[in-house]
Records
---
Amino acid sequence: MSDTIPYKIYLSESEIPTAWYNVRADMKNKPAPLLNPASGKPMTASELEKVFCSELVSQELNDTDAWIEIPSEIRDFYKMYRPSPLVRAYCLEEALGTPAHIYYKFEGNNTSGSHKLNSSIAQAYYAKKQGLKGVTTETGAGQWGTALSMACAYFGLDCQVYMVKVSYEQKPFRREVMRTYGAKVTPSPSMTTEVGRKINAEFPGTTGSLGCAISEAVEAAVSQEGYRYVLGSVLSQVLLHQTVIGLETKTALDKYNITPDIIIGCAGGGSNLGGLISPFAGEIIRGEKDYQIIAVEPASCPSLTRGKYVYDFCDTGKVCPLAKMYTLGSGYIPAPNHAGGLRYHGMSSIVSQLYDDGIIEARSVKQTEVFEAAQKFARIEGILPAPESSHAIKVAIDEALKCKETGEEKNIVFGLTGTGYFDMVAYQSFNDGTMKDYVPTDEEIEASLAKCPKVDA
Amino acid sequence: MSDTIPYKIYLSESEIPTAWYNVRADMKNKPAPLLNPASGKPMTASELEKVFCSELVSQELNDTDAWIEIPSEIRDFYKMYRPSPLVRAYCLEEALGTPAHIYYKFEGNNTSGSHKLNSSIAQAYYAKKQGLKGVTTETGAGQWGTALSMACAYFGLDCQVYMVKVSYEQKPFRREVMRTYGAKVTPSPSMTTEVGRKINAEFPGTTGSLGCAISEAVEAAVSQEGYRYVLGSVLSQVLLHQTVIGLETKTALDKYNITPDIIIGCAGGGSNLGGLISPFAGEIIRGEKDYQIIAVEPASCPSLTRGKYVYDFCDTGKVCPLAKMYTLGSGYIPAPNHAGGLRYHGMSSIVSQLYDDGIIEARSVKQTEVFEAAQKFARIEGILPAPESSHAIKVAIDEALKCKETGEEKNIVFGLTGTGYFDMVAYQSFNDGTMKDYVPTDEEIEASLAKCPKVDA
């Protein structure tokens, strides 16, 4: 431990980024546009503004400006929990006996328990600025709903969350955190929307799905005066806001002259991964540097490693625009993996394009090996990680052990997106030895992919 | 927000204290010694060493050395989550419209969720150094058990936790965190100890109590080769370890030339309060400075404000030494207040003596007004506080509002000891409007105090 690098590299508040980095401006192959499912033509701003806040639509469609200024009101909020620390995992290195240097950017030290707050506060700010009364959203695991509730409480906006019914019942504590922040939480499918009533009639006793909750939240947004719908991942605007993670990481590394060899992040919808890697991917694209970037996904929901790069529906209810992305098909139902945040059938269009261009690689890992890594990390580094984040931990440990074999002193950086305090049911099943792995067959994936819309764009 | 003081004052790792401050060395009236209940004489080191680790016994009995060096192994662990930030509550000040400046020392940013880790890592270190196999303890709400599990995992010690049965059943997530860290968690009263079997036979179906769990943990420690019993509050050694809170707070304040006018902490067993205020109380005792120090306790368990300063049993099972302290009587059963960490019948002997000497004052607050403050704080400052910590928030807000009346620009500092992620049942009862207040009658307290042992010391 004679190294001069501290356990935690903290930046000062003046080093919080003043602009988000829009990697699309530098990408040679731009992500494909969202399409109107009816016309098959690119969605226009005015079409999108019926559902989304205007300023956010403009960010969603912007692929020319590399830097987008962060308003001071958002930066003031960021100061309450940012800059987040870049941690040198000295204890983990020692326990593994690896010559590698391991660093993680820890985004879990806020009440939402994850990086989601970086985007929710931005989205709430633009909604407030537009003079809206409130926003609607869906939540599955609950991290996004919590983050949005916090942001809305701060700006005095009404917040309506449609929570997948099975989560609403099984995760009452997540629900109570949202209620404490003043959000109205409705189990989905509900009887308060047309689509909800329809689904309840068609499938009595259904415990809901994310796709259904999205449809309800969108209906609630467009049917109330002064409301818009907001989303916590997948969209380019969300990835944009999450670049504060990567920008701070880069500043902290530069401060100590550390050049990462490998950068690792877990990938569900792709926003935290994209946010972490954007500044580094930009350097690769501009030919300035080279890094190995690894996206880690669950073996039970392997959109990058086993999906196809095609246009698909973003939701099972098929009310949203079509997006070109690595997908398993919008009807794909992943096994009940505990990493709720990584169970989306598709992937951010930016991450998909970077993957297709060979700028990032992808790896899938099984649930039980993820929890083995999570338990090890908790005991050695003292932080109980979220199941999602633990996918990145697993691959970071794998790479550090490879360095032990080869003797290489690589710098490994990974994103630790959140804490697992609300995921103890998952840990219990691991502690009890009842956790199972599930890997879909090729036939299952092919059958699901066969239902993707036929679009020639 | 033009102030040059940042939202969060972070110290560097080199500013983590190198020694704990032992306020007893400076106290003119020393806390009264622990007594052997059989002989009525002060407990000797060799008597205490049958139950406690030797080095910790020596700390417990030390009232001459003002500074006790922190071993480098403990400081290395501290570096994983310390220094903790001293936060300027700009948003709360603005929301209250107060000219006061409010600061809080936030100890919740670690997986145990509270300050408890500061002492558990020290106690585990000394147990390891003594060559022990493991330690035993009791836990009620679960913060201490979690902190001890983490510390034992780090040093490779066996950890046996007796968890009050009603908590074990109602807080399965706390239990799973401890299991994830490798601890063996047993619901108390159990059938694995003599005292547990006796209590189960006498009171079939009992859901347990902290007093019973203490008795079981002590029996388990003395009946196993290579084990000792450890405790998370009340004892002077625990308060000593917690002085890292106060020392860091003082360093951070000094860095910006801030002199606190009021220092506020919640008080259960007294260790976090004592740790926060020790360096400041030392200055008062030595005649160097003057501060207003306020201990805040629940109206349902008002040991300082309505108890008596006498010798009493530390546990309901009466297996521990007698301590002179402000107490409500060891048989006092507080109403089911949700601040589990503040339900102890007595108070640290150091805090009791400082209170008796008029160096600190005390205030009691009701549960519903505490949760009103907690909700307000969560929405404005973005941190969901533990019910215990929210007692300090309530009084800090009260004092800031007094400043609004008078126009005084006081500096108010309070200890935010932890987060409330595992206390959502309490928040739910507040959100639902079903939370009740309870204040004991004078007769109830007198009846309980009448059962204190008659000791003339």
Note: Residues 387-406 of chain A form the longest helix (20 residues).
---
Amino acid sequence: MKYREILDEIKPKKSEKEKIETLCKTLIDNINDIAKKENIPVEATLVGSVAKGTWLSGKADIDIFLPFPLTTPEDELREKGLYLGHECIKKVGGKAEEKYAAHPYVTGHIQGYEVDFVPCYKIKDANQLRSAVDRTLLHTKYIQENLDEEKKDEVLLLKKFMEGIETYGSEFKVGGFSGYLCELLILYYDSFENVLKAASNEWRPGYVIDIENYGTSRKFRDPLIVIDPVDKNRNVASALTMQKMTEFIVAARNFLENPKKDYFYPVKLKVSKEELKKEIKKRGSRIVAVIFKHPKLPADTLYPQLKKTEMSIKKHLNKEGFKVLRSGHWSNEEDLGFLIFEFEVWRLPKYKKHFGPKFWIKKHYYRFLRKYGKENVWVEKDRVVSRRERKNYKVESYIKELLKSGKIRVGKDIKNYVSKSKVMNETEFLDYVPKQSLEFLKKFLNPGIHLWR
Amino acid sequence: MKYREILDEIKPKKSEKEKIETLCKTLIDNINDIAKKENIPVEATLVGSVAKGTWLSGKADIDIFLPFPLTTPEDELREKGLYLGHECIKKVGGKAEEKYAAHPYVTGHIQGYEVDFVPCYKIKDANQLRSAVDRTLLHTKYIQENLDEEKKDEVLLLKKFMEGIETYGSEFKVGGFSGYLCELLILYYDSFENVLKAASNEWRPGYVIDIENYGTSRKFRDPLIVIDPVDKNRNVASALTMQKMTEFIVAARNFLENPKKDYFYPVKLKVSKEELKKEIKKRGSRIVAVIFKHPKLPADTLYPQLKKTEMSIKKHLNKEGFKVLRSGHWSNEEDLGFLIFEFEVWRLPKYKKHFGPKFWIKKHYYRFLRKYGKENVWVEKDRVVSRRERKNYKVESYIKELLKSGKIRVGKDIKNYVSKSKVMNETEFLDYVPKQSLEFLKKFLNPGIHLWR
């Protein structure tokens, strides 16, 4: 593999670097000027991938932290922090947008960049932590002190590979590897290829990486455990799902066996509705989708709720005797979402066998007999059994009733929308959905397609 | 309940008793005469329900045992025993038929009765047992010594009730209660009603009845344990299945709640092919039958083999993803048999999800990937998964192939016949089967129908 070629494409050029550095300096100077003028005891600090020099060309998210003394009351921190952000954005002619993480913060859209202004506490070590964002200062410092120039290139390769195979990002939607986790993996294994080799050969569920030898790994029950060098009580990989860990390992093995530049870029898919219809027909399975309008929500709110709803419906379907082969969810992140289910069993008899108690649990036995009538009860080994009419023996009508039943666990922000869903089979559904979801559907039908090139 | 009324119908009248007693005396005298003449050291003994006075009117099976001294070699016992039987049958103008249990024996069809002549060893107690038949002498003696006239009536009621609800008989086809077991239950509980009450209220799997307090119950792992008063190492109820034990208890509870004379007689069913077709259609399930010719076999050979074949096919069906709701088997006990399956799931997609190894079991992982190709493999949590074409996605074609595959466990005497079966759906099947199987089919569709009136 000629990694040089890839680095040429993903490593920020001198001009990009200078432009960003200049912008950052201007913003920080501005903040500090305002702070001084208003007598706010803050010195703005650049953090994140820009500060660490590990951002992918064209993808610089500028994070400017506003560390307040530990003695500042939370109200004051929030108020003055947001004020500083807004003032700075105003001064450089950007557009402000308030957001919420552990604290509220301001994002400025400035000269084509997204710049986050985040109030935080000025902590020296993890013992002084007030909230998760405070840790970022320590992370930035740790990487700046430990990651040399050569390894920064390796970080870029790892991040870009992760992007290509869809395992990059610790947000809920992905459940993959964060940027900081990529940096630590390079610190620990020295190079991109070494990370892939170690993952391929050594990783298994519960694998531990403890760079500073804190010995605190037994606290964690996660697929991968990477003890934070700046906080022995935190697993940097806590957001990584078993699914994404395995996907990374499988893609790594595929890559090592036959390295190709294509792995560093998203898999190319051409999809049309006609082609998807043909593909589904050939499988001889049944696909049913639950489609609904929903309000605009932050991605980290929206996706967990979609997932929760999907899982709850799936659980009910399987319990009823319909068998779900695979399921998934999608949203345009604006106003339209759907859940999708592929079935191994989508039609059932008009009655179901209902198992009652063991014959010797007399109270339940007699209650069962009274409820169903002795003429509808029989015996299988030591249990009584009865026949029960099944109201919905086709999966679509079952789902329709389920959605109205109040039995499923639905995320609270989408609850009232999901109950008004349309339930469609594969043909109706493919005619209905927007084109932007076709790539998702192709991947839903071919769930390993992004793991090889 | 007026049990008197029932007893009037089921208790042998004086004339029936005298006729049987006279016949038995004639047969025994004949045997003893021949034995004396031929110098065979045997004194014929009447055993079984006739000897114990517990036979149901019109159902006297006469059992005449021929006890040889313990020193007799087995060959000689067999040869001389059969000889005595044949000679006796010849003398009274009956028709002989040789049969096999633990030893060979002769059945004579004499004056409308079936009379078994069974050679055995003359044992004094269970320690001297050579084979299971020898025990019968001890059973007969024990019941004769312990069961008084009043209790004989109770035995008749219990046997007749068991017949009515289809739990009477310890042969494999039934798996129910033997006559001797009924007698012991009456000895233990005193009356028919007490047996029903005890079963209803106290019995549960592993319930122990140990009349002679031998304390040997822990040897047994059966649904019901009744230690044989004449042999502490035997469970008289060992042939009783959990199924029949529970059926008896359920029917007993139904009877006690609303006693009716009808419980003592088989449930009356009117069945027609048209009615069965309608009933099946209403269920919305699918029924498939495997029909085959088979040779005439003893019932205790035939039924276990049918059952074994049924269970093996069912296991494969469920493993493949077809879901069997209920299954059964039937034979005319001459030359035609069938296995029958009702399905909750009878159709599957054209592909199946095939779970491979966990990702860290590397040898299996790479074998799996080579076998299916990385383009057909994906990841679910920590496992690799692939898609596999399903050759038979309809249940009939799956069964047809399964029957030819050699994968199912089939009873050896019916193996070559089962492999040439016809596989039919409910409509074809109902047009094809003989009328005598319709009652079985009605019960197959309504498996509790014999447990209440």
Note: The two ends of chain B are 14 Å apart (CA to CA).
---
Amino acid sequence: MDLKEVIESVENELKILKLGDLNKECDILNDKIMKRTVTRGNIFVYGAGRSGFVGKSFAMRLVQLGFKAYMVGESATPPMKKDDLFIVISGSGKTQIVKDIIEISNRNLVKIVMISAEKVDDEKIYMNIIIGGKSKTSEDKKILPLGSHFEINALIFLDSLIFKLIKAYNLEERVEKITQMYREDRIPVI
Amino acid sequence: MDLKEVIESVENELKILKLGDLNKECDILNDKIMKRTVTRGNIFVYGAGRSGFVGKSFAMRLVQLGFKAYMVGESATPPMKKDDLFIVISGSGKTQIVKDIIEISNRNLVKIVMISAEKVDDEKIYMNIIIGGKSKTSEDKKILPLGSHFEINALIFLDSLIFKLIKAYNLEERVEKITQMYREDRIPVI
Amino acid sequence: MDLKEVIESVENELKILKLGDLNKECDILNDKIMKRTVTRGNIFVYGAGRSGFVGKSFAMRLVQLGFKAYMVGESATPPMKKDDLFIVISGSGKTQIVKDIIEISNRNLVKIVMISAEKVDDEKIYMNIIIGGKSKTSEDKKILPLGSHFEINALIFLDSLIFKLIKAYNLEERVEKITQMYREDRIPVI
Amino acid sequence: MDLKEVIESVENELKILKLGDLNKECDILNDKIMKRTVTRGNIFVYGAGRSGFVGKSFAMRLVQLGFKAYMVGESATPPMKKDDLFIVISGSGKTQIVKDIIEISNRNLVKIVMISAEKVDDEKIYMNIIIGGKSKTSEDKKILPLGSHFEINALIFLDSLIFKLIKAYNLEERVEKITQMYREDRIPVI
């Protein structure tokens, strides 16, 4: 199997993201993100392992757009408070650590949004966005191993969400400013 | 613009990955990775910012397959030595920090593979794999902001490379073992 | 040599921190940190390797006290702007990466405070606090290898600074609140 | 209270490390670390938050000395296997996430060494080294807030352990080699 066929299998998994329902949920989540700028609420992001790297990529873009976003587990993440938004990225939503992070965060009465491969049943979750792919532990047979299809779907979904956020709230100028800073090598990214 | 159209723009950028040349380069890189198991060489990975999160996702899969792979900048990364393989992920390949890391690593006579959006001219680079998308600082107009298209292409290219590595060297049993460990929640991933 | 003697050698290196000059510099730095709450400036922290782990420990405490502090290199770190405070922890202050981070940050006209083992000559540095120990590359013979004495001195100096910050600006209530959150296991620290 | 008095309070907490019992436990742990080079076992390190930064500082030194050490939570950490050594750094040893990590790791039959401020009762723990200071959630009144005294004690204890490891197994040449690499700026530390 050559590279072309593998990429096609990735595209096949992306089909779910093109459905109208996800478009609507994306807008709803963007609305919740935007609302925190009014309520002075923070946005927290968490994922374990590779889902966490996707989460960090997402948090970075939110911060670049000027939002107060933080990654759970980083040194400079403040405590959570009531009505903050907490976006969890997890294929199955069911591993012990993910369940405990949700439990601990929920004690602060944050609003928990779960982005997962399949439906996650947990009354602590306020909104569950299902983006397909495949969780690490699913019996489903897919081309890529472990949770790769989910992680790719998550990165593309969240980057698309960022695009829609920019358009919906006219953040183009802010993007241009950051782009300019990168061109002048003024952001100490390591 | 709804989610569907954004995903299509992502797919449009993925076209370059389906070309025969990249398939060949992917096989060559896999061969170099595999060779390190014979020479007892290490594989190092580096990227700055979001390219770094893609790099960590890649390093994680290599380690799960049993390779001696390490991420530059993590606490448990050993010193480099002659003929180790060093895979750098960078849209432009030109920011100051990326150039420094290449300079410093090159003093150890490692073989440097650069995965970038555009061609990178640097005689220290042993192999340059161009995967398109768009670097953060390019003037190119693309749908997603900054280097997102490059980062998505990089994640998908490297995950596809992992798939081909599994097939070419019959690592299915190893994948099955790791999957089983995840199912039994025996991997302390945070 | 038993543990007792090694600890005594550590204490011997700590003597420099007890001198009156450092006490004064500590107060000056605390004043600069506090001032950012008025000017709405951010505090950035950076260190490479083990100095970076000390830096993260420091940034975590600043955030817990309610300051807007960020670690360079983490996903959720915003861009720097004029008059922000940038605290760099580096034994020698002279490695290529540290010099480049200073160069890049300086383009944003931030105020750079360097905490180092020895004096660092660099006109980009606004304030240099010398805390002894020993840099990784110094010829000095000390008991602990590499830069360990510097890193220990840095952690203790910065934790003492935090103590003095709490006292000088009456932040005890805030500390009590965070302690209580830890007791109730409400902070998702991983 | 000036800096001098704060440093003295830190030194006061260090007294426990000078006792003969800890010297003996330090030698026993070093023996276990060394033994893994014979059994081809890995050494895993974990801590949450600031204890984690101490853990990373420790893992980095172990790797520099040539040991196969890994930090739980980093991208390039391999799966655990029977009889690997797992060193956990935690003031109280009792937060939900720390208990989870121990539970999950224990399923792999690793030997768990807990380094804590107070005694931790858990039959999954193979060896408990008590180094004083104060856990974040303890009612004890100490000068520094939260778990700072424990974290400082942990860093100094583990750095002293590294010193004794070098002496006991004649690793001076290895230290000299790494020092030389730092002098030549050949280690890409960020």
Note: Chain C has a mean pLDDT of 97.
---
Amino acid sequence: MMEIEKKRVSSWFWQLRNEIISKFEALEHGESDDKHSNVGKVKFEKRKTHRPSRDNADLGGGEMAIMRDGHLFEKVGVNISTVYGELSETAVKVMTETKRLPNLKSNPYFWASGISVVAHMKSPFLPAIHMNTRMFWTEDAWWFGGGIDLNPCIEDPEDTKKFHAALKETCDFHDSKFYPDYKMWADKYFYIPHRKRTRGVGGIFFDEHNTGDWENDFSFTQDVGRTFIPAFSDIIIQKKNLKWGPNEKEKQLLHRGLYAEYNLIYDRGTKFGLATGHDPDAVLMSLPPHAKWL
Amino acid sequence: MMEIEKKRVSSWFWQLRNEIISKFEALEHGESDDKHSNVGKVKFEKRKTHRPSRDNADLGGGEMAIMRDGHLFEKVGVNISTVYGELSETAVKVMTETKRLPNLKSNPYFWASGISVVAHMKSPFLPAIHMNTRMFWTEDAWWFGGGIDLNPCIEDPEDTKKFHAALKETCDFHDSKFYPDYKMWADKYFYIPHRKRTRGVGGIFFDEHNTGDWENDFSFTQDVGRTFIPAFSDIIIQKKNLKWGPNEKEKQLLHRGLYAEYNLIYDRGTKFGLATGHDPDAVLMSLPPHAKWL
């Protein structure tokens, strides 16, 4: 069921993935003035991923792409995947706990497709960023989910304002309730209870997004993805030449420790991915290249 | 109840803490040949910890001690605490799930005292190590728990053999069943499912240790603590002068990433500590000073 919609969704995620990769490589390569140097010429390395199965059944998969050690991007990963099959007991347990799906059958058939991006930048003045959008389908229900959040180690109220304004504009185009609701959800979702703070300056987060109008819900999800590229690259272009020293780098490494704490302890996508036996390198792609704890 | 026993236990943990600190500082200071240099003269910094309460009630506390940036010890933390009060709902939930205490009353009175040590060494040839021993008491039950495990990034079968032999000798002195049982428990406890490997080369792990003979169980717990110092310092003394380069350091940083994954995702002590609102810096003292993810 919904076969055409599923194809459109997974094609869109591939397209968005390719656009993000092109844009990030262009930003990175624009950094190098030295034509004879390899520095600044790093590229995304791609690897197919497969959801492991005991009997070699086709459970779907995707591609992970990582660019490392650039002038701008210290580590940036873009994962896409389209997976399907029966939901494992563990997955059903997680989903009935966290979703409004108390009556999920045991071992129901599901389909899910999504994109996930995490960028850790070399300069401490460039925030880390996370973006994810996805569609989930079972025989009982379908929905979209996703979010974008900005994680500077050195906060700049002007960046935060512009970033939120871009998200608000995208949301408002679809429904004026989306931005306040989904901003509040992000503030709650990205909160780190043991540190009594959020991991960054927020953004939007949404899940179980189903207004009843699939076409418009898909369109909203696409627009969130489209907003991500300029909202982030504007900050990069504006701040990429700021000079930083060991004090700023120290702040960044400690902030990355906090980011790793959040992802390993609280992030639902990470928990779900690890609990359902996905490729750990793909699930943990979000972890920072270097982190520090005092 | 058991007031004298509780006092003996918490005094022992203070004593063991002081012995560990003295020995580690002596090892560290023995490293410096330059009398005019401050390098190698780092010391443990101590800070009192308190279990936070809403109404300033005395819920106990302890002391955390950390020595950083030494010649040998890049970061080593030794925490001790003696805490008491009513078990929170979250704690009861965790404990009824993981302990054989299905009938734990809601909000029972408890008392717990323990020591926890984690050392991350500067040289990649020196393994990280973890040791913890504790006594837990409620009106229904008391038990000891603890463990030691060795976490080299460059494994040396000879070290592993000697380390396990020392643990076996200590266990066998009390009961020949302890070592095989508690070694197996460590292999299971320190397993990282998503990486399909253990975090190190094992050791022993035990919990709910109650043979019915408190005196002997306390004595066993003390002996585990006593074994820790020579078992670890023998390795340090033997390997501290081995030269290492960037390849070995890279292995160490990646192995520390794995260590952080384990502690943040699976370690029960960490989960329990964070869920019950303990000082996050004390709970997360175990995290490596620097870690890396590819």
Note: Chain A touches chain B at residues 68, 75, 193-195, 253, 257, 260-261, 264-265, 274, 277, 280-281, 283-284, 287-294 (CB under 8 Å).
